[in-house]
Amino acid sequence: MLSNYSNEEEPTSKFEEVPYVLPNNIAELSRLNIQHYIFRYVRKGNYGAPISKDVKRILDVGCGTGIWAKDMSLLFPDTMFDGIDVNGGIDPENDFPNFTFTQGDILKGLPYKDNTFDFVYQRLLVAGMPATAWPKLCAELIRVVKPGGWIEIIDTDIYFRDYGPAWKQLEPYFTAFMKKRGIDPYVVQEIPNFVKQGGLSNIHHSRHVSPMGISNSEIDKFMVKDLSMIFANMMPLFVAASGKTEQQISQLLKEFEKECFEYKTYGFAYYTWGQKPL
């Protein structure tokens, strides 16, 4: 599984200028597969936009391992799927005959013609998108979707509410990583404005709690484990920025996991979709 991916600590993408704060290694790609099922459970499905069952072509922007497209192909077996990601290739276990992968930097535009897709989907790219790039990217999503087609964007502001002392120590370093790369997680709250400015109609926008201990359920446990895997994958960055040892950071992450349930920690996810006018 994931045999095409590097197990190095540093990113292996050929697009070195991409500001994504997470590495491209086996641990990270495995985490993305787990994360898919978490969000599918939380949102009770793979999409929210009212797309028809006869859609001909769907694009997954920032497709990662390709797991969302593979899952969607079970619902839409006759649909053609495209995926684009800065990293070079999907998990072979997620490949299927009607899927086409393109490696590319979406910050430089989407390599597709106008009005190509019936549905364009993008999820959880806030950690790889400078704040200034969001309006242009939304315009690109709108450009490549057909008139009458839909786009859907799901993301989180990556800020935790009601957290404990362990994250209080780690959070400044995490924020600094993002700021250095021009990333402002709060920009995701402006997505409805960006797609409205781009000409979409029938816009839906909603905010939902991402449970990280607040409900003490199994999904909380999975969500916290997902976050812990993110931060473990960022270990070299935490060590370099903090001056602490890897062992000290690991201990803080263990405390963070426990404190999420003690302090009833939670976050927010934002769901936006809209239709391109005919």
UniProtKB/TrEMBL annotation:
Tagged with keyword Methyltransferase = yes
Biological process (GO), any one: methylation
Designated name of the protein: S-adenosyl-L-methionine-dependent methyltransferase
- Pfam families of this UniProt entry? Methyltransf_25
Q: Which one of the record's GO molecular function terms can you name?
A: methyltransferase activity
List the PANTHER family: METHYLTRANSFERASE
Could you tell me the keywords of this UniProt record?
Answer: Methyltransferase, Transferase
Superkingdom, taxonomy of origin: Eukaryota
- Domain Methyltransferase: where? 58-149
Q: Which organism is it from?
A: Basidiobolus meristosporus CBS 931.73
Task: Tell me the lineage of the source organism.
Answer: Eukaryota, Fungi, Fungi incertae sedis, Zoopagomycota, Entomophthoromycotina
| Listed InterPro entries | Methyltransf_25, SAM-dependent_MTases_sf
